[in-house]
């Protein structure tokens, strides 16, 4: 079992399945864990008021050469067969949304006549995660191909990356790294319609139905306000959308019109995606010029209480204090800088040791896998030339 788990209105719909090829049992297991090792599973099990993150683990296509058979499911889930608009509970939802947001009810009814429940979405949400080592995770997310494409991305979108950095203080290379992991620099072709995934989870997944109804509502409002056809908004099986893999609620909160075309389109507009990510990271506590992550070696004198699995926790110590406990940093830092000692599960029941500085918290909020936080920071450093 994975030790870390997951990780934001309108106009016509075609339901599309996914057939990911399975190259090997090992690669399938690794991809399945990468996809699911985020905050998302944890917040499914929590209360209805949890604000969702964005998250890589919600992708429907694997990064690099890792492939899986995640959608070749012998589905045990049973969902209603007719179009969603055929059912009273959906029509009540439509009526409420139409009244609340002044969207024509007939338009919504017509839309949902073309949306059908998808049993595989339930299967994917319920599927347990597998354990993946840091070595395997790093090999995939920090591949030479991803790094090379990241450098190209920095050049291609230099104007917008620098503009977003100037506005929010979030480094261009960190923004590129997040785009590179979330959607492989915008090249991943998500095969699921977000309205199908969210509709299925809203009405066929009782454990989190209220949360997904809100996200479905957010999707409809987002599409309407930005003159987008919701049937063309593709995303993950959990409803995460576009280049940055935002849940619809996060688009509402943090979406930015980066190219000044009077709409927010994180599905096809890289400027909008870049500015939206920067806004999210800044809003979650990014400190311009601060440190993120360093891989360290340990000395004597450390106890279990010196470690934490939450980069956003309150047990940070100064670099000077950590050095006195025998922590050996790979780089030089101000002795007053605050860091939190942690560890990443690696192969053969070993660990990689890291210090998460304060600026790792916004990355961790984006996707609460410790490995994700460390990988994004490392990829950003590589893209910067470090």
User: Helices and strands: which structural class?
Assistant: alpha+beta
Number of E strands: 7
Instruction: Please give the share of residues in helix.
Output: 40-55%
What coarse outline follows from CA principal-axis ratios? globular
Give the count of helical stretches.
16
Radius of gyration: 21 Å
Strand order of the largest sheet: 4-6-7-3-5
Largest sheet geometry:
5 strands, antiparallel
Query: What percentage of amino acids are in beta strands?
Result: 5-15%
| N- to C-terminal distance | 34 Å
Uncertain segments are: 1-52, 56-74
Order of helices and strands: HHHHHHHHHEHHEHHEEHEEEHH
What is the typical, i.e. mean, pLDDT?
Answer: 84
Task: Explain this structure.
- With 386 residues, the protein is of the alpha+beta class.
- The chain has a domain at 293-358.
- It has 16 helices and 7 strands.
- The protein has helices spanning 25-36, 39-44, 88-101, 105-112, 119-126, 134-141, 144-156, 158-168, 172-183, 194-204, 209-225, 248-254, 270-283, 319-324, 360-366, 370-384, and strands spanning 192-193, 234-235, 293-297, 317-318, 328-329, 338-345, 351-357.
- The strands form 2 sheets. It has a 5-stranded antiparallel beta sheet with strand order 4-6-7-3-5. A two-stranded antiparallel sheet has the order 1-2.
- It is globular, with a radius of gyration of 21 Å.
- Residues 1-52 and 56-74 have low confidence and may be disordered.
